Predict the structure.
Amino acid sequence: MTALAYHIWRPAVVWALHFTTIYALISAACAPRALLEVQTAQMLALAATLGAAALVLFWVGTGMRNLSRLPKDAPERSLAQAAVWAATISLVAILIDLWPMATLSSCAG
């Protein structure tokens, strides 16, 4: 049961780290000193998104496979379903996080 609880919260942690990374890149690109070029920040954001999305997508697939192997009346089935949903929601959130970076052409408001 504790392993399933771990499977529930780990995609949310990956999403939170991704969210922080994206907004740190935006801040670096739009800082008064221009710590990064906008295009560099966009490429780094794309790489971070692809990595995080691939990891969470792997967890969605693993969770679905584990869920299909459980009997319908297994007590841990609801936690397994929660793990799949948490990973799916986190995957969507990771993809949505890329939107501000994809639309960033310049930092001039």
User: Anything to note?
Assistant: Helices lie at 2-29, 38-69, 77-97, 99-102. The chain has a mean pLDDT of 91.
